Fold Cytochrome P450.
Amino acid sequence: MWLGDQLLRAKDIIFSQWERSYHLSRTHLVRLHNLRNGLRPCSVLLHGRPADDKGSFPSLSHYPELILDSWAKKFGPFYSMRLGNQLFVVVSDPLIAKDLLITNGSIFSSRKEMFIKSKTIFHGRGITVMPYDTRWRKHRKIATSFLNGHFLEDLSEIFDYEAKILVRELFRYGRGGTEPVNPQPHAGRCSLNTMLTIVFGIRTDTLEHPLVGHALRLSREFMNCTGPVSNLVDFVPLLQRLPNFLTNRAKKLHKDLVDTYGGMISEIEKRMNSGQDVPRCLVKTLVETGDQEALDHLDKVMICSAFLIGGVESTASIMQWFSAIMPSHPDIQEKAHAELDRVVGRNRLPTVDDEKDLPYVRAIIKEVERCHNPFWLSTPHVNTEDFTYQGQFIPKDTVVILNTYSIHHNAERYTDPFKFNPDRYLNDHMKSSESARLANVTERDHWTFGAGRRICPAIAVAEHELWLAISRMLWAFKMEEVPGEPIDLKEYDGLSGRSPVPFRIQMIPRDHHVAEVLEM
Ligand code: HEM
């Protein structure tokens, strides 16, 4: 009771500061100088506002990209704010993102040690939360070697197989278009199987396999417990010492990751030690190189967990947003069908080699990524040295948030930015992995994969997987809304990684060729 009262009191004090500090934000960069001179800033900018009577109101704990975007409109594309004990700068412009994260990547490539995500869930070990140091470089080297080059080529058969199974399962669960189907768990299993193959050299054979529900729950729980600006406990050290619901959830998630993926790693180690053959996979490499790299068991568990979380919730989310958007765009589906029929025909599924000849389908994928980036606020970077930019002082250890929502909805770069319009990408012949390397960042397709030295190391894997899954769903089905079940494209589930709220659609096979090609 006492503890509850204290927490409520703390919350009230902080909320009472909120309104005042909101209006002070415009001058906050000046206060950065004050900070340097040892003066205490007076503002405490904190968590969200309660929902208004019309429903959800954007706040820092829900839809933070919207409130940060509204502040960018007021204070400009580069402003600062303070949450509890942490100073943030919010970047909403590609050129500023380039100056800080790319040109000055040697300074702006670290991560903040967030209490929930880094300390409690990952115990400081997952590649995504590590500071920019030699340990991170080792992990990044391992990740890059598994997500690019020859290994990726070896995996192409697996991607091909999983994408075919995805379409087959959607056909089967939708009973050939006669019943509504929720594509979400199927997209989740497709992404999960790809990651299980890369990490453990295994796959699940049905949606009912116990690992499917369990692994997807762990990844979602991660996305729901972590968010760059959403958890009070990350920025108020006092709260970290008090028992609270979120910390307990994070501790449980850590234990579940260790039990699940740690158990699977131990199994592989046992098999390797007894001389059994183990397919090439991340764990096998970690075990073989573990001693030289001084990786202990928890290191291995956390590398694998980072892959299983980051690699599943991301691609699955894009597939889910794609399936949620298509029913309201029959005209776009028709154009894609016409292109697929002309280039691929009706007697086989599209392949990776077809991609260059299917610019409209590729444009659809890029437009889904622009309109529905699963990570609007990316994964924030931190500067490891004091830095002055455009006359503004950014002290060491400031968290830099890239608000891709603002960048992706800038009308100067994307005409009519709220319209889902693949045509805007029709003349863009680059893969996102190539586009991310453009010297002129204003021409980059989108910022969904982040920027700089911490940019997603798996863009090639994600593009390959998404291409096969989405081009094949389009080739096989006409997607329609279920009468009386409108799809909500505004609300979403997740704090750091967002997926649509559950929905069902009709996935109607386009003709009799679909069953034949899928060997149903
Ligand atoms: C559509 C799919 C994906 C999206 C949108 C995505 C997005 C991102 C973003 C925004 C970041 C942070 C970049 C930054 O700090 O600037 C990131 C990092 C990362 N991603 Fe992805 N990702 C995707 C797929 C994957 C896949 C399939 C994997 C497979 C393992 C993966 C593994 C990682 C890892 C390990 C990091 C951390 C890199 C580091 O901190 O050095 N991602 N991703």
